[in-house]
Specification:
The complex is a heterodimer.
Chain A lengths: L4 E8 L5 H9 L3 E5 L6 E8 L5 E6 L11 H11 L10 E7 L3 H11 L6 E6 L1 H6 L3 E2 L1 H8 L3 E3 L9 H8 L15 H12 E2 L6 H10 L4 H19 L1 H22 L4 H18 L2 H17 L1 H15 L7 H7 L3 H7 L6 H10 L9 H11 L4 E2 L2 E2 H27 L10 E3 L7 H35 L16 H13 L6 H10 L5 H13 L9 H8 L2 H13 L4 H11 L2 H29 L3
Parallel strand pairs in A: 1-4, 1-5, 5-6, 6-8
Antiparallel strand pairs in A: 2-3, 3-4, 7-9, 10-11
Helix pairs in contact in A: 3-7, 5-7, 9-12, 9-18, 10-11, 10-12, 11-19, 11-22, 12-19, 14-15, 15-25, 16-18, 17-23, 17-24, 18-24, 19-22, 20-21, 21-22, 24-26, 25-26
Chain B lengths: L11 E6 L7 H8 L7 E10 L2 E7 L2 E5 L1 H4 L2 E5 L5
Classes of the chains: A alpha/beta, B mainly beta.
Protein name (chain A): Ferrous iron transport protein B
GO molecular function, one term (chain A): ferrous iron transmembrane transporter activity
Family (chain A): Belongs to the TRAFAC class TrmE-Era-EngA-EngB-Septin-like GTPase superfamily. FeoB GTPase (TC 9.A.8) family.
Amino acid sequence: MTAQSLRIALVGNPNCGKTALFNRLTGSRQKVANYAGVTVERKEGRFAAPSGRHIQVLDLPGAYSLAATSPDEAVTRDVCLGRFEGEARPDLLVCVVDATNLRLHLRFVLELQRLGLPMVLALNMCDAAERRGIRIDVAKLQAGLGLPVVQTVAVRRGGAEALVKQLDGQLPPLPAPLPEGSDLHAEVSRLLSAAVSVPERTARIDDAIDRVVLHPVFGLALLAVLMFTIFQAVFSWAAPLMDSIDAGAAWLGAAAGEAMPEGLLKSLLVDGIIAGLGGVIIFLPQILILFLFILLLEESGYLPRAAFLLDRMMVGAGLTGRSFIPLLSSFACAIPGIMAARTIQDPRDRLATILVAPLMTCSARLPVYALLIAAFIPQQDVGIFNLQGLVLFALYAAGILSALVVAYVMKWTRRDHSEHSLLLELPSYRLPNPADIAIGLWERAGIFLKRVGTIILALTILLWFLSTFPAPPPGATGAAIDYSLAGTIGKWMQPLFDPIGFNWQICIALIPGLAAREVAVGALATVYALSATGEDPSGSLIPIIADQWTLATALSLLAWYVYAPQCLATLATIRREGGGWRTVGIAAGYLFGLAYLASLVTYQVTLALTGG
Amino acid sequence: MTLSELPRNTPAVVVGVQDVSAGDPIAVRLRELGFVAGEPVRVTAHGPAGREPLLVQIGYTRFALRRAEAARVSVKLAEARA
């Protein structure tokens, strides 16, 4: 280590405000990735202290103890011990504790003192402690612990100044660990009685809110209203933004079309790239609105309450209340959802959660739903609700019900019936901090746009290529795509999908959908733009499919996408998280089977009812 | 009596946590979370179905525990003290 640089790690209990402090220190200079070999999220950032010293910050996953009981806690333990391969041991640990919850958090600090690393204690959320009348004698605490103690308010501008100043100075000396076998709880009690005075054990406001939120009737009703509101908002708030993106893409396509000479390059740009990517980027507003709600619920402390309310029900279905958070995240994307399952200690609960997570309707499926609903479901009001919103809600509900049934079946095929544990902390309620929410949304938007710019762009171009070559023979009368490679593949696949009502255009779109579901829409746009024989090849997709598909086909495709297993990234994540190809095989197999079955039933029943 | 039998909003004090098997990880974790002799404890709410899980106040923290977990914690009623 040079005097000019320092590697620090933030470590602390869950809910200590560690990530908010991390955001306060590093702002938007963050990198989010995974730890090598495990899908535990690794957040790293950097900042420069006033002296010019570069400080690299690692935000370690929250842990209650070094005796790890989950993959998350194992990462924290191994990094702190310097045992994590490919991860340098930090020069200094910043132990973050919630000043209103010292009884629990200081025990972990005493445990960390045994590691033999220089440490600083960040007394976070000092503002909340002050409001509750908690008085902390910092000098006494510092003397008692033998560590520098600084006060921080992560959510306030300048709230980490004392910490930065401390980090900018000399490294503190190694803390003296307590003798092996000493009673850490007794030590915490001694420290608290010497340095801290607490008028009340709980915040009155928390108790008051919990009386309503955790109420057997009102609590569940509130949860249902919240979920319903989120799904309605995703559909209605996003509409104006989506319209403007759509208009923008159309304008860009037209402008590029006019500026360029007729030919292959123009076709690639207008029919391939602009039509394909435009069809995907349009869903950014919906994804961001969904994540906005998830982040708000998470930051406010509501999510664990929802887990509390649903635990008994989810246990009945072979899951756990803790599954709620991973499953809710899966509505945005199954990958962070499956990753969030790492907070479930019980390996059986974890596996069950991972296997059903793909049944939660991820935002990548939203483009497909949105397209089909807009094309086939009339825009009309049913009571106070909108019919399109109701259909969307039904699709989400179908996924959830299927997940419960699948988890239930898994529970009964399992031989091990020993106890499952819950042990879930319900943190204090907090007003979400706009800056933290903004950083969270920024990260999500970045991840989505990166996918659009890389994998989706590459597939769009590949698909354009497949749909363009070989060119139709001279004198051909049909659309060009009929003669292309894509047309051949689609027609070759069609017999398998004929019973469920998919035409060859859909079959083609299913292929790139394997890499990312939302590509299916871009693929349809590309396929239809290229197969249109009229004058306006970049015409909007909605009227085309509304004209060419039957209602039965549309509903069948919707049913397919409730289960659709075709997301290679999810399967890869399951392999890493669930341990092995067998789990992947089970997941892919059962999802494909259910998708086919659901589509078959939907198609045949609709056909019978509509007299087709 | 055990924490799982403790009526709602009745102040009590932890006596100890029993391992149900050798090195019971749930018991170890409970102790780490602050379920140690002498700590005041209280059940403040129940889940909506089957009175499970229990919402337990220990130290300054609230935890949701299932009945089987709470049954590991033995408690005694707090003496009438402010």
